[in-house]
Amino acid sequence: MAVVKVEKLKAYYVTGIYGVKRTIKAIEDLSLEINKNEILGIAGESGCGKTTLTKVLFGMIKPPLTVLGGKVVYNLGDGNADILSMPSDQLTKLRWKEVSYIPQGSMSVLNPVRRIKKTFQDFIGTHRRMEKKEDFEILVRNYLRDLGLPLGVLASYPHQLSGGMRQRVTVALATILKPRIIFADEPSTALDVVVQRGVIQLLKRIQKEQKSTLVLVTHDMAVHANIADRIAIMYAGKIIEEAKTSVIFKGSLHPYTKYLIDSLPRIGDKGYRVSVPGTPPQLSSPPKGCRFHPRCPNTREMCKEKVPLLVDVGDGHKVACSCISDEKI
Amino acid sequence: MSLLRRYIVPRIIQWLIVIFVGVTVAFLVPRFTPTDPVQTTLMRVTAYGAINPEAVAKLEEILKDLYGLRGSLFQQYVRFWKHLLRGDLGPSLTMFPTPVIEVIRNSLPWTAGLLIISTIIGWTIGIIIGTFTTYFSGRKWTQILDTILMCIYPIPYYIMALVLVILFAYVLPVFPLVGGVGIGLKLSFSWTFVGSVLKHGFLPALSLIIIGLGYRVLSQKALVSTVVASDYVTYAEAAALPRRKILFQYVMRNTLLPQITDLALSLGLVFSGALITEYVFSYPGIGQVLYTAILQGDFNLMMGITLFSIVGIATAALIIDLLYPLFDPRVRYR
Q1: For domain B114-285, is the CATH number 3.20.170.30?
Q2: Mean pLDDT lowest for which of A223-237, B28-42, B261-275, B286-300?
Q3: Rounded to whole angstroms, what are the CA distances from B310 to B206, B268, B303?
Q4: Residues A258-304: tens digit of each pLDDT
Q5: Which domain holds residue A222?
Q6: What CATH number corresponds to the domain at position A59?
Q7: Which of A141, A146, A238, B87 has the fewest CB atoms found within 10 Å of its own CB?
Q8: CB-CB: which of B231, B242, B249 is closest to A126?
Q9: CB atoms inside a 10 Å sphere around CB B189
């Protein structure tokens, strides 16, 4: 069952300086379903619209980001609701209690002049009414203990914590009210691999214990391999392939995904790693037709004209490539 | 107490050193200038007719004694410190024999009161306006406020002050034109006295607040615009924290540190007076006294005012240093 359903989403960054309008087509005609209780990984290179997608999914839309069309429907058990047409106070009510967000660059998401405890108080107090101060204390302490975080962090300021600890605190802060959907945007980037593992496992544990849905955005394929149930590959503002993790790693169909997987190092294999030829497209003027065609090894004439649709090729494996859908159908 | 030993004591020692060096320099500089106050006074006395040279020589000796200019530079310096530690700044040379300390006592409270109050009010208003207009930028009222401030900001201070005087003391005689308090009123804590002081101080204070506002708002806007774009504010907004909380605890709180430094430093400057304000509003104050002292080579008076200035600024810096850890947890005692 889909918890979040994205339909034909179109989100641009629209800026204007001295009357010259500039649009960056960050997300173009994107559809996606996120299932209940799954960990969905969203992968792609920098600047492909991953962060933009998470922001829109979370309903955090502030100019210059503009949604030009499409729907983002949450199904939280009490019927469907399109968050893009929802009044903002209603959306506010969903925040933290139902949907939560772990931001990119968590190093500096904690207010530097506020003790961690105060920050917890701010975030929890906004969304849950606490009768007594002790209730709040108990809630936070129990949760941190569950997650295996030292209680000493509560009395600290952010700068007194290590990067990994700060990240874990942010994870705890985002999940303490047990939201049903968690969006995590590069939660492990900027951490060394050992700490990364700790954070990722923490996220996985939270997801399992709270039976929530985790949407994990990162460019790090190793992280995806470790925890994602399904992976969606993004390229230039579109999803080009979507499948179970094992399928993405072993039986991917889209040429871009193939390049991506082939570029990963493997134990014992000392061969030269080939990268994708060319450079990522400018999203202000993306290529016509299939956005990958200038870099694709098997471009055909039709690729330059026809935008390939995301087609199910069986067992939930979806690909957006004219070559493949033509062959299979 | 390691806090006392590690953090407070070194800073107090530093404060003493700053004052010592400052006072020494202030002692030396006038003595290297070509103006000789003894000769100036002698000239003034002898200008009205010939006086017996013996008497002149005797007068010169007496004057040197009185002015503390006898002996070598070092002897003068030692004597100067001895007097200073007893709180004796010597007599004013131009208003002889009034002691310097009394001249300062008569003028400093006016200036200090006016400047401290107007600086603090201006600082508070400026920070609030700067924060609100940046955080709520794009709304009608912020744009109007911004435009007004941008128009006021470039106006030279003396013009602004004159306009206020003409408008509110002459055209609409709401406020008095001259002085710090009504003529003939004795210092007391009666309503009439306090009311009169407030009435006299209102226009000068207003002019200082208005003119300081532009700078304060602009600097606050710059600070706020970086903080608003910071990750922690974005995250707090994503979590839908109450506006008020974000505005005060997340935005304003983080911009306060540089503003507090600036406030303390501008308060330290209070002791050198505000010459233009005092002239335009005929306000009794230390600025005018200092100006006259410089013109007439009144060493002792200059020295006295400079001393207050040095102590004022050094103390302001000391207080900020001691209070910093309260405002920013990242500043911790070494």
Answers
A1: no
A2: B28-42
A3: 27, 8, 10
A4: 888 888 888 888 888 877 888 888 888 888 888 898 888 888 888 88
A5: 2-235
A6: 3.40.50.300
A7: B87
A8: B242
A9: 6
From the list B231, B242, B245, which residue is nearest A109 (CB)?
B231
What percent of chain A is helix, strand and coil (3-state, nearest 5)? Answer: 35, 25, 40
Chain B closest CA to A161's CA: distance in Å? 12
Beta bridge partner(s), residue A241: A233, A319
CA neighbours within 13 Å on the CB side: how many for A171?
29
CA angle B305, B310, B311 (to 5 degrees): 100
Beta bridge partner(s), residue A24: A13
Looking at beta carbons, which residues of chain A come within 8 Å of B326? none
Q: Supply B297's token pair.
A: 């080579």
Is A266 domain-assigned? no
Selecting from B235, B241, B249 the residue whose C-beta is nearest the C-beta of A109 gives B235
On the question of pLDDT at B334 being above 70, the answer is: no
Residues of B in contact with A122 (CB under 8 A): 236, 241, 245, 249
Interface confidence, given as ipTM, is: 0.86
Specify the number of domains making up chain A. Answer: 1
Cα(A172)–Cα(A254) distance, integer angstroms:
37
Confidence of residue A326 (pLDDT cuts 50, 70, 90): low
Is A127 a member of any domain? yes
Q: Pick from B231, B239, B253: which is nearest to A113 by CB? A: B253
A217 half-sphere exposure, CB direction, 13 A CA radius: 26
In this prediction, residue A329 carries a pLDDT of 47
The helix (run of H) or strand (run of E) holding residue B46 is helix B37-46
* CA–CA min distance B238, chain A (Å): 6
User: Chain B: residue nearest A104 by CA?
Assistant: B231
Give the chain B residue whose CA is nearest to the CA of A103: B235
Helix (H, G, I), strand (E, B) or coil at A114: coil
Contacts of B137 in chain A (CB under 8 A): none
Question: Chain A residues with CB inside 8 Å of B245's CB?
Answer: 122, 126
Average pLDDT over all residues of chain B:
85
Q: Where are the domains of chain B?
A: 114-285
Residues of A at the B interface, defined by Cβ within 8 angstroms: 58, 60, 92, 95-96, 101, 103, 105-115, 122-123, 126-127, 157, 159
Percent of chain B residues topping a pLDDT of 70: 96
In chain B, the residue whose alpha carbon lies closest to the alpha carbon of A93 is B240
Candidates B235, B238, B249; nearest CB to A114: B249
Closest CA to A311 of A25, A31, A11: A31
| pLDDT above 80 (res A246) | yes
Residue A50 lies in a domain: yes
Per the prediction, chain A carries an average pLDDT of 87
Cα–Cα distance measured from residue A186 to residue A48, given in angstroms and rounded to the nearest whole number = 14
Tell me the nearest-neighbour CA distance from B151 into chain A, angstroms.
Answer: 23
Contact A113 B232 (CB under 8 A): no
Q: pTM for the complete prediction? A: 0.80
Question: What SS3 class is residue B105?
Answer: helix
Give residue B21's identity as a one-letter amino acid code: V
**Whole-angstrom Cα distance, residue B55 to residue B321?**
55
Is A118 among the domain residues?
Answer: yes
Side chain identity at residue B284, one-letter code: P
User: Cβ contacts (< 8 Å) between B249 and chain A: which residues?
Assistant: 111, 114, 122
- Four-residue CA torsion sign, A92, A82, A70, A5: positive
Give the per-residue pLDDT at B137.
84
